[in-house]
Amino acid sequence: MVFTSFEYLLLFLPVACLLMACLTRFTPDTWGEARQTLIIVLSLIFYATWKIDYLWLLLGSIIFNFSFGWLIHQNKGVSQKLILGFAVAANLGALGYFKYTNFIVDSINYLAGTNFLIEKIVLPLAISFFTFQQIAWLVDQYRNDAPKCTFIAYSSAVTFFPHLIAGPIVHYHDLLPQFQAKNAFKASAEQTLNGLFLISFGVFKKIVIADTLAPTVTQFFDKTEVLNAYQAWLGTFGYTMQLYFDFSGYCDIAIGSALLLGITLPLNFDLPYKSRNIQEFWQKWHITLGDFFARYLYIPLGGSRKGNTRTLVNLFVVMFLSGIWHGAGVGFIIWGTLHGLAMVIHRAGRFLNLKTLPKGLGVFVTFMFISLAWIPFRAESWEKTEKVIGGLFNLEGVPVPSFIYRILPIEPEQEALSFVKILEMEHDDFRVFAITLIFAFLIVFLVPRCQVIYDRVINKGNSWKAYGLIILSAFLLFISLVKMVVVPYSEFIYFNF
Fold first, then answer.
1. Contact yes or no for 429/223 (Cβ under 8 A)
2. pLDDT digit string, tens, across residues 93-140
3. How many CB atoms lie within 10 A of CB 71?
4. Which residue among 21, 72, 106, 147 is least crowded, i.e. fewest CB within 10 A of its CB?
């Protein structure tokens, strides 16, 4: 079951909210574990609709990590470190088996000329997210910094279906106190309105924008054998926007769904494409993942406390491992390396007290780097990456203004054409893609994020604006549902990670 399905939007989520509303209304506040148990049952049903065979993996992971968290808490000294090391290694081992075994075997066969055969291993849904979240629990137990909770509370926090599949990655200090509060899971009227608003915008982002861009992006990256410049650039910018609206749309739905149950999840995106430098981008893109890496990797490595050289090395290591976390493939390694180098260059510039770029130029340079770095991330293989990058500079068959021929050493092949004329040359799907891409750019650079829009309207206390917001939300959701009837199912990109 995915967020952008009729089963979730029109059946599962309404039933889940109704059941929880009945439980919180007609039972005393002391029935906290009953509410947490309901969350567990609902979440396991939600997960099992994808592939029930892997339900055992999720349950086994929860039992294993809660048990070892208890052992870590009960021991001290060397034994505590050994238990933590074993538990973390076991988690990473399970993640590595499902996520990287096929890639490692294929790499060995390619490099050594061998022919080892192994059955294709299916990546269990959400394994990266619930593994990382539980490693955080183990480390917090070691640091004596984990909130006290029962097995039921812990299980409900791990499985909580709004964040289970693709985040946000929630820290236990943020989630467990809400689950264990006296009025837990009692959604206020304002939370309900806010949640419905975020869900409608999130579904619109995914279905109307991201899924409209997806077919042409797939055509350019995966099917067209040779790309010219305007195909390569449009494909690159198309994926840049597709990924953002796909994942940020998912997070809006996740946060909105949690609000309908009276739970607040952390922000995961804050207009990242308007960032002035690469450091700011990573403070605004997948915020909870960045917080996890900072808290449990960058700081333990020494952070910025052990000199400039060590700081640069730590930054590179974190970004490189971020690339590997996203997937097993050359493209993810290249992407992580590029971001690692960018972070090193940016921080080195700060060490040398170099002047920062003007705001507008900084946003442009950062956005162009981010967009180009997405190429290997999307292409995954070196061959496809090379094809797209080569296409960026291939002017064959490209309608360009005549002055370009005076700048570049090339012979003119055709007269300059307007963008409208280019659209007329293409098929209907491409025209829809181009219009959607322009619309996506306007939203990214001119429109505040959804929560800010909601807060501005509600805080002004104007009932007419509030009604307008409700009507807009209903309209966007209606458009999305209509498109869901017409367009085939498309899963969220981050389900692959």
1. no
2. 999 999 888 888 888 887 888 887 787 888 888 888 999 999 999 999
3. 17
4. 106
Q: What is the CA radius of gyration of the chain?
A: 24
Contact 9, 206 (CB under 8 A): no
Q: Which of 335, 375, 330, 336 is nearest to 232 (CA)?
A: 375
The answer to whether 260 touches 191, Cβ cutoff 8 Å, is yes
Residues 263 and 181: their CA atoms lie apart, in Å, by 11
The residue length of the chain stands at 497
* pTM (two decimals): 0.91
Encoding tokens for residue 442? 């306007």
Q: Is 12 exposed, middle or buried (0-12, 13-18, 19+ CB in 10 A)?
A: buried
How many Cβ atoms from other residues are within 10 Å of residue 423's Cβ? 17
CA atoms of 484 and 1, how far apart (whole Å):
14
What are the φ and ψ backbone dihedral angles of 147, each rounded to 5 degrees?
Answer: -70, 145
Greatest pairwise CA separation for the chain in angstroms: 80
Six token digits for residue 175: 């989630």
AA letter at 98: F
Q: 36: Cβ–Cβ under 8 A, 6 or more apart, which residues?
A: 152, 153, 155, 156, 179, 184
DSSP assignments along 427-456, one per residue: -HHHHHHHHHHHHHHHHHHHS--HHHHHHH
Q: What is the mean pLDDT of residues 364-368?
A: 97
Q: Measure the CA–CA gap between 438 and 98, rounded to whole angstroms.
A: 39
Q: Which two tokens stand for residue 163?
A: 């964040």
Q: How far apart are CA 316 and CA 57, in angstroms?
A: 32
Instruction: Please check the confidence at residue 150 and state whether its pLDDT lies above 60.
Output: yes
Best-predicted range by mean pLDDT (36-45, 160-169, 177-186): 36-45
Q: Which active-site residues does the annotation give?
A: 326
Listed residue (365, 361, 389) closest to 375, CA to CA: 389
